[in-house]
Amino acid sequence: MTTDTRRALVVRGGWDGHQPVTISDSFVPFLEERGFAVETSEDLAVYEDAERLAATDLIVQCWTMGTITREQSANLAAAVRAGTGLAGWHGGIVDCFHDHGYHLLTGGKFVMHPPGFLDHTYQLSPDHADHPIIAGLDDFAVHSEQYWVLTDPHNEVLATTTFPPGELHDRPAVMPAVWTRTWGAGRVFVSTIGHKPDDFDVPQVRTLTERGLLWASR
Protein backbone atom coordinates (compact mmCIF):
# COMPACT_ATOMS: atom_id res chain seq x y z
CA MET A 1 0.00 0.00 0.00
CA THR A 2 1.38 3.41 -0.96
CA THR A 3 0.49 6.87 0.21
CA ASP A 4 1.17 10.40 -1.00
CA THR A 5 1.38 11.69 2.57
CA ARG A 6 4.75 13.13 3.47
CA ARG A 7 6.12 13.26 7.01
CA ALA A 8 7.34 16.44 8.69
CA LEU A 9 9.07 16.54 12.05
CA VAL A 10 9.23 19.86 13.95
CA VAL A 11 12.06 19.84 16.49
CA ARG A 12 11.62 22.80 18.81
CA GLY A 13 12.85 24.11 22.13
CA GLY A 14 15.81 25.83 23.73
CA TRP A 15 15.63 29.52 24.62
CA ASP A 16 12.01 30.61 25.12
CA GLY A 17 12.71 34.12 23.84
CA HIS A 18 12.34 32.88 20.28
CA GLN A 19 8.91 31.42 21.08
CA PRO A 20 9.67 28.12 19.33
CA VAL A 21 6.29 26.55 20.05
CA THR A 22 4.17 29.56 19.11
CA ILE A 23 5.98 30.27 15.86
CA SER A 24 6.42 26.68 14.72
CA ASP A 25 2.75 25.98 15.49
CA SER A 26 1.83 28.76 13.07
CA PHE A 27 3.30 26.71 10.21
CA VAL A 28 1.75 23.37 11.12
CA PRO A 29 -1.64 24.06 9.42
CA PHE A 30 0.17 25.16 6.27
CA LEU A 31 2.12 21.90 6.13
CA GLU A 32 -0.95 19.81 6.90
CA GLU A 33 -2.91 21.53 4.13
CA ARG A 34 -0.15 20.51 1.72
CA GLY A 35 -0.40 16.87 2.65
CA PHE A 36 2.13 16.49 5.46
CA ALA A 37 1.59 14.41 8.55
CA VAL A 38 3.24 16.64 11.14
CA GLU A 39 4.87 15.47 14.35
CA THR A 40 6.57 17.64 16.95
CA SER A 41 9.38 16.90 19.38
CA GLU A 42 10.62 19.04 22.25
CA ASP A 43 13.54 16.73 22.99
CA LEU A 44 16.76 16.55 20.95
CA ALA A 45 16.85 12.82 21.72
CA VAL A 46 14.68 12.46 18.61
CA TYR A 47 17.91 12.90 16.65
CA GLU A 48 19.13 9.61 18.12
CA ASP A 49 16.48 7.70 16.18
CA ALA A 50 18.18 7.30 12.81
CA GLU A 51 15.36 5.19 11.41
CA ARG A 52 12.77 7.82 12.25
CA LEU A 53 14.86 10.57 10.69
CA ALA A 54 15.38 8.54 7.53
CA ALA A 55 11.61 8.08 7.17
CA THR A 56 10.99 11.83 7.54
CA ASP A 57 10.65 14.03 4.46
CA LEU A 58 11.16 17.38 6.21
CA ILE A 59 12.76 18.35 9.51
CA VAL A 60 11.88 21.85 10.72
CA GLN A 61 14.63 22.86 13.14
CA CYS A 62 13.49 25.44 15.71
CA TRP A 63 15.89 25.18 18.66
CA THR A 64 17.96 28.05 20.07
CA MET A 65 21.09 27.80 22.22
CA GLY A 66 21.03 24.09 22.90
CA THR A 67 23.60 21.31 23.14
CA ILE A 68 23.62 18.57 20.54
CA THR A 69 25.61 15.39 21.02
CA ARG A 70 28.01 14.05 18.42
CA GLU A 71 25.64 11.15 17.74
CA GLN A 72 22.63 13.43 17.31
CA SER A 73 24.50 15.76 14.95
CA ALA A 74 25.86 12.86 12.89
CA ASN A 75 22.42 11.24 12.59
CA LEU A 76 20.85 14.51 11.46
CA ALA A 77 23.55 15.08 8.84
CA ALA A 78 23.27 11.49 7.62
CA ALA A 79 19.51 11.75 7.23
CA VAL A 80 19.81 14.94 5.18
CA ARG A 81 22.57 13.45 3.07
CA ALA A 82 20.22 10.56 2.26
CA GLY A 83 17.38 12.90 1.20
CA THR A 84 15.56 14.23 4.26
CA GLY A 85 14.97 17.98 3.95
CA LEU A 86 16.05 20.45 6.66
CA ALA A 87 14.61 23.93 7.09
CA GLY A 88 14.34 26.65 9.70
CA TRP A 89 14.45 30.33 10.54
CA HIS A 90 16.36 32.78 12.70
CA GLY A 91 18.06 31.53 15.87
CA GLY A 92 16.20 28.25 15.62
CA ILE A 93 18.57 27.11 12.89
CA VAL A 94 21.68 29.36 13.01
CA ASP A 95 22.02 30.04 16.77
CA CYS A 96 21.43 26.61 18.21
CA PHE A 97 24.45 24.36 18.66
CA HIS A 98 28.20 24.77 19.03
CA ASP A 99 28.97 21.88 16.73
CA HIS A 100 31.14 22.12 13.62
CA GLY A 101 29.34 19.30 11.84
CA TYR A 102 26.00 21.03 12.34
CA HIS A 103 27.34 24.35 11.00
CA LEU A 104 28.73 22.59 7.93
CA LEU A 105 25.29 21.09 7.36
CA THR A 106 23.36 24.36 7.61
CA GLY A 107 25.99 26.56 5.97
CA GLY A 108 25.85 29.35 8.53
CA LYS A 109 26.42 30.45 12.10
CA PHE A 110 25.01 33.39 14.07
CA VAL A 111 27.60 35.87 15.39
CA MET A 112 25.74 38.95 16.64
CA HIS A 113 22.93 41.42 16.11
CA PRO A 114 22.75 45.12 16.96
CA PRO A 115 20.89 45.84 20.21
CA GLY A 116 17.10 45.79 20.07
CA PHE A 117 14.82 45.84 17.06
CA LEU A 118 15.76 47.91 14.01
CA ASP A 119 14.01 48.95 10.81
CA HIS A 120 15.99 47.28 8.04
CA THR A 121 15.39 45.94 4.57
CA TYR A 122 16.03 42.70 2.72
CA GLN A 123 17.11 42.69 -0.89
CA LEU A 124 16.19 39.71 -3.04
CA SER A 125 18.95 38.39 -5.28
CA PRO A 126 18.35 39.40 -8.92
CA ASP A 127 20.50 36.46 -10.01
CA HIS A 128 17.95 34.09 -8.45
CA ALA A 129 14.76 36.01 -9.23
CA ASP A 130 13.18 32.90 -10.75
CA HIS A 131 13.97 30.66 -7.78
CA PRO A 132 10.69 29.13 -6.51
CA ILE A 133 11.27 30.46 -2.99
CA ILE A 134 11.40 34.14 -3.99
CA ALA A 135 9.87 34.26 -7.48
CA GLY A 136 7.43 37.17 -7.83
CA LEU A 137 8.36 38.73 -4.47
CA ASP A 138 9.72 42.23 -3.90
CA ASP A 139 12.31 43.59 -1.48
CA PHE A 140 10.80 44.22 1.96
CA ALA A 141 11.37 45.86 5.33
CA VAL A 142 11.16 44.35 8.82
CA HIS A 143 11.29 45.87 12.30
CA SER A 144 13.17 43.20 14.21
CA GLU A 145 16.62 41.79 14.89
CA GLN A 146 19.14 41.94 12.07
CA TYR A 147 21.52 38.97 12.09
CA TRP A 148 25.22 39.08 11.38
CA VAL A 149 26.24 35.57 10.30
CA LEU A 150 29.23 33.62 9.04
CA THR A 151 28.28 31.61 5.97
CA ASP A 152 29.53 28.95 3.59
CA PRO A 153 30.50 30.20 0.10
CA HIS A 154 28.67 27.21 -1.38
CA ASN A 155 25.30 28.61 -0.26
CA GLU A 156 22.86 29.85 -2.87
CA VAL A 157 22.00 33.25 -1.40
CA LEU A 158 18.44 34.34 -2.15
CA ALA A 159 18.28 37.51 -0.02
CA THR A 160 20.69 39.83 1.73
CA THR A 161 20.50 42.64 4.27
CA THR A 162 22.93 45.54 4.54
CA PHE A 163 24.48 46.76 7.78
CA PRO A 164 25.43 50.45 7.73
CA PRO A 165 28.87 51.54 8.95
CA GLY A 166 29.16 51.32 12.73
CA GLU A 167 31.51 50.84 15.65
CA LEU A 168 32.62 47.41 14.48
CA HIS A 169 32.94 48.15 10.76
CA ASP A 170 33.64 51.38 8.88
CA ARG A 171 31.95 50.34 5.63
CA PRO A 172 28.52 48.95 4.74
CA ALA A 173 28.39 45.17 5.01
CA VAL A 174 26.10 43.13 2.77
CA MET A 175 25.07 40.05 4.75
CA PRO A 176 23.46 36.82 3.48
CA ALA A 177 20.02 36.50 5.07
CA VAL A 178 18.18 33.73 3.21
CA TRP A 179 19.90 30.84 1.50
CA THR A 180 19.58 27.30 0.24
CA ARG A 181 22.11 24.53 -0.13
CA THR A 182 22.31 20.83 -0.85
CA TRP A 183 23.84 18.17 1.37
CA GLY A 184 24.17 14.97 -0.56
CA ALA A 185 20.65 14.11 -1.75
CA GLY A 186 19.04 16.48 0.77
CA ARG A 187 18.07 20.13 0.59
CA VAL A 188 18.58 22.76 3.28
CA PHE A 189 16.68 26.06 3.59
CA VAL A 190 17.77 28.77 6.04
CA SER A 191 16.23 32.17 6.76
CA THR A 192 17.74 34.45 9.39
CA ILE A 193 14.43 36.35 9.68
CA GLY A 194 11.86 35.57 12.36
CA HIS A 195 12.74 36.59 15.91
CA LYS A 196 9.10 37.15 16.88
CA PRO A 197 5.69 36.05 15.63
CA ASP A 198 4.74 39.34 14.00
CA ASP A 199 7.84 39.22 11.78
CA PHE A 200 5.85 36.64 9.82
CA ASP A 201 3.01 39.12 9.36
CA VAL A 202 5.18 40.68 6.65
CA PRO A 203 3.78 38.93 3.56
CA GLN A 204 7.16 38.30 1.96
CA VAL A 205 8.55 36.75 5.14
CA ARG A 206 5.61 34.39 5.52
CA THR A 207 5.64 33.45 1.83
CA LEU A 208 9.35 32.78 1.45
CA THR A 209 9.39 30.76 4.68
CA GLU A 210 6.46 28.61 3.58
CA ARG A 211 8.02 28.13 0.17
CA GLY A 212 11.35 27.29 1.79
CA LEU A 213 9.76 24.50 3.83
CA LEU A 214 8.25 22.99 0.70
CA TRP A 215 11.43 23.42 -1.34
CA ALA A 216 13.55 21.63 1.26
CA SER A 217 11.21 18.67 1.64
CA ARG A 218 11.92 15.43 -0.15
Write the layout of secondary structure elements.
Elements (H helix, E strand, L loop, with lengths): L5 E9 L5 H6 L2 H6 L2 E6 L8 H5 L3 E7 L5 H12 L3 E5 L1 H4 L5 H7 L1 E5 L5 E7 L15 E5 L3 E4 L4 E8 L9 E11 L2 E6 L11 H14 L2
Parallel strand pairs: 1-2, 1-3, 3-4, 4-11
Antiparallel strand pairs: 5-8, 6-7, 6-9, 9-10, 10-11
Plain-language structure description:
- With 218 residues, the protein is α/β, with parallel strands linked by helices.
- It contains 7 helices and 11 strands.
- The strands form 2 sheets. Strands 2-1-3-4-11-10-9-6-7 form a 9-stranded mixed beta sheet, with helices on both faces. A two-stranded antiparallel sheet has the order 5-8.
- A hairpin with a 2-residue loop joins strand 10 and strand 11.
- The chain starts with 5 loop residues before the first strand and ends with a helix.
Strand arrangement, largest sheet?
2-1-3-4-11-10-9-6-7
- Please describe the biggest sheet, giving its number of strands, its sense, and whether it closes into a barrel: 9 strands, mixed
| Structural class label | alpha/beta
Distance between the termini: 20 Å
- Gyration radius from CA atoms, angstroms: 16 Å
Number of strands: 11
> What is the helix content?
10-25%
Order of helices and strands: EHHEHEHEHHEEEEEEEH
What oligomeric state best describes the polypeptide chains here? single chain
Overall form? globular
Task: Please tally the helical runs, counting DSSP H or I stretches of 4 or more residues.
Answer: 7
Task: List unreliable stretches of 5+ residues.
Answer: none
Could you report the average pLDDT, rounded to the nearest whole number?
96
Q: Report the sheet-strand fraction.
A: 25-35%
